[in-house]
Automatic annotation (TrEMBL):
It holds the Pfam family MnhB. The chain crosses the membrane at residues 12-32, 44-64, 76-97, 117-140. Residues 15-136 form the Na+/H+ antiporter MnhB subunit-related protein domain. Residues 156-169 have a biased composition (Basic and acidic residues). It is a multi-pass membrane protein. This is Multisubunit sodium/proton antiporter, MrpB subunit. Residues 148-169 are annotated as: Disordered. PANTHER family: NA(+)/H(+) ANTIPORTER SUBUNIT B, NA(+)_H(+) ANTIPORTER SUBUNIT B. NCBIfam families: PRK12505.1. Its main location: membrane. InterPro entries: CPA3_antiporter_subunitB (IPR050622), MnhB (IPR007182). It is found in: Cell membrane. GO terms for cellular component: plasma membrane.
Length: 169
């Protein structure tokens, strides 16, 4: 039985060259959005999304499998986990200082620094890492696809026999 879906990678010099030119700019813009989120439109979510999209562009241009091998699964899990740990640590740190979870006014009362720096730390170190890691991970998961062991919809005896059920039951 032939597979109706063709998932072969076709190399395109135009796309590869365009991505080589555009990727540094999109990565820089994503980092700019992340680092200037408190002072300008943007923030950790938008910046993390743009950084993640830069990796997706590389995967489309140079192949999903080489990009997946370059960004190992352990790196992506570490990125997401690190973001969650940083987010939680900052939030719990505010509780330890006598406030509520993510109540940054404790920073002003105890350390005499602007509460804005707590939010900046959450956006830059927490949210941007989580968003970019989740975006890239979801892309790789969807790109892997779902391949059932047997063709669906054949019905009848083949599926019943695979499960150990006969038509007589």
């Amino acid at each position: 039985m032939s597979d109706p879906y063709d998932d072969t990678y076709t190399e395109s010099q135009v796309i590869m060259t365009a991505v080589k030119i555009i990727a540094p700019f999109t990565l820089t813009y994503g980092l700019f959005m992340t680092f200037h989120g408190g002072d300008a439109p943007g923030g950790g979510f938008q910046g993390g999304t743009i950084v993640g999209v830069t990796v997706l562009m590389l995967a489309f241009a140079f192949g999903i499998e080489p990009t997946r091998q370059w960004l190992r699964n352990s790196f992506l899990v570490g990125l997401i986990t690190g973001g969650v740990i940083i987010f939680g640590a900052i939030g719990l740190g505010m509780i330890a200082l006598g406030g509520n979870f993510l109540e940054f006014y404790q920073l002003k009362e105890i350390f005499h620094i602007k509460p804005k720096w707590g939010l900046e730390a959450i956006e830059i170190a927490g949210i941007s890492l989580i968003v970019s890691g989740v975006m890239i991970s979801l892309f790789f998961s969807m790109a892997a696809g779902f391949s059932p062991e047997r063709p669906s919809g054949t019905g009848g005896r083949e599926e019943s026999a695979d499960r150990g059920v006969s038509d007589d039951d």
